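Exercise (ungraded).
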Amino acid sequence: MAHRTTPRWLAAAVAATVIISGCADKTSAGPAGKAPDHLAGTVSLWHFFNGKNAGVIKAAVAGFEQKYPDATVEIHDGQDDEKLQKAISAGQPIDVGISYSTAIVGSFCSSGAFQDLASYIKRDNVSLDDIPAAVRDYTQYDGKRCTLPVLADTTALLYNKAALAAAGITTPPKTLDELETVGLKLTSYNPDGSIKQLGFNPLVDFYENAPGHWAPMIDGPWLSEDGTTSRIGTSPAWKALIQWQKAYVDKIGYAKLKTFTSGLGQEFSADNAFQKGKVLMEIDGEWRAGYARDQAPTLKYGVAPSPVLPAFGKYGASSITGNVAGIGKGAKNPELAWALLKYLSTDTDVQVLMGNGLKNIPTLQSALASPKLEASPEYKVFIDSAKDPNTKTTPATKDGASYLTTFLTFWSRYQQNGGDLDQQLKKLDEDIDNAIALAGP
Amino acid sequence: MVTTTPAARVRRRAPAPPSGTERRRRLVALAMLAPVLAGLAVFFVYPLLASVVYSFTRYNQLQSPEFVGLLNYRFLFTKDPQIGVAALNTLWFVVILVPVRIVTAVAVAGLLSRARSAAGFWRTLFYLPSLVPSVASVVAFVFLFNPGTGPVNQLLRLIGIEGPLWFNDPSWSKISLVVLGVWVMGDLMIIFLAALLDVPKELYEAASLDGAGGPRQFRHITLPTISPVLGFAAVTGVIAALQYFTEAAVASAVASGKATVGGGTAASLGYPGTSLLTYTEVLYVRGFASFQFGYASAMAVVLFVITAVLLVLTIRRVSVFRAKGISS
């Protein structure tokens, strides 16, 4: 396709605007040829944790300050991705930033918001072999490693032991058919027909129900190899899962489910429906162990891998995403930042400390195998799923993996209104492809 | 307004150059205006021009913008699956929320202007909700209208009515926000009340003597007199509705059960379904969650143009109420 010539006035305006705003692309000078013998100064750490969880990060950082007595870490907690991006683009000198979402890796790596770590890794001979393959995969984009993992999240089926035992169910469901049978059996109703207690909530926008977390049920594909085309709409696996979910919703009734769901407590509060015994089985992440320990200490629950559609899913696998950390563009003290990043990401004891505190999954094989890791039988299911060779992640794109939101929006609409699924899946693919094209090559 | 005939214009001499005193006066005036002009230039003119320029680029705020011609506008008008829904939702708020708030505020102000006892108490009572921060009022409303546990549906059940899902039903979520908008109409009500109290009583007395009833008095006396205030309410209301964000975003986050700190605000926008997805929410997501500032700028430019057109139409429509012969 022939390129049109840029109008002169517009090119001049773009140049002027860029100069005025001071946003011209700046490249990092990169590390010195040799790692410094002595590290000193102040390094800033931006992360999204709050409250008690922020205390865990603080405890981990205290170890770093002990290791480097002349170094001080300035912690900024409660900073989500949107704030991180705004701060970096506004020229705020963020040394190390931790993000809760792998979705940002594509945009942060390609835009330079996080610096390329390749030269630091090569210089210091840091081996990344201790990091599981799927985790190594989601912490880089298009061959560029701009982040390292700081704990991961996996998902599994959580079930209320007492409720299952009372219903005479001895083993948690392994297939989606079993999940539906058990879920419906455990569901009870009030005299007026409204739901009293729900076995399993099939609404796709409930708590952690989301395409990314349900993908292991069918080993669902996402994008083409080059990341430019959606593979969701043409996948028989996704279609089968959507049809199963819609049929389940219809068996109980969308309005009835929605009325019940809207009366449930907030996901990350003490009123969480699973912790309160209002929903008896749910797909959730390993972090629930930490919340349940603090907020519902008497709750007896079990954890099992996500049930699967036997034709597609691989029982035992999970979806894995997690926290990623990088050195911000314009970091004031990049050597100290690299030291802190390396400490948080590649030190086995630090990973164990944070894993025990946050109840997230360590991102080092050595930490997963460490006897110091407090692994209850429930938590161990998540750890095992993290090690499973079929465990996959959601691919990164330049636009912050917006295809996940587009998919969820489509599915939420379909579960309520139904309609021609094939046609809607085709439109879904088109929408995702167009959005990826807009973000550019 | 003073008008001049062509002959008068011909006779008018070219203005004499300003004297030293006049020049000093102008310089002083300019110096006093300088802070405002600088503020306008830095915080309005430059961002506006920059948005127009960025709208023709692919830009993530970290790398140099890449010129892409009309790509952003083509995507906006032909391919973005969210824009149509968001534009319709926003238009819904402009067409329904703004008039409903104005009509309710005028009605309440009309009643309060006639209150013979405890007027101060009633005025305070109706004004008070507008002082509640919008986030707090939305959270309170989502709680009150919770279909499962909220007192509103429990009261409805007592009289045999099964209440709707309110903030959890795409068909009712916008209506729920209109109810909230009415509850916090005290800011409008108070200026309408001031305007109504300013209407000369003699006009009503004269109209009564001429046999005009209440509706005719309202049409021919009240409306023309308060039309500048109506115009103000309509113009500011339309601008606010076109930029409707906070209430919809908070309602979506709380009603979806996923309100969290540190989890980003983009995740639950639009819930339930896409019924509360507004134009500015899409703009925000594109800019700060998808890092597409070029596209977000194109959206901002289109919003600016639409706002300007709607404002002109609104001002013209409101001026219909003005009494003939009165010019401003």
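Further reading is listed at the end of the chapter. For now, observe: Chain B touches chain A through 60 residues (CB under 8 Å). The longest helix of chain B spans residues 20-54.
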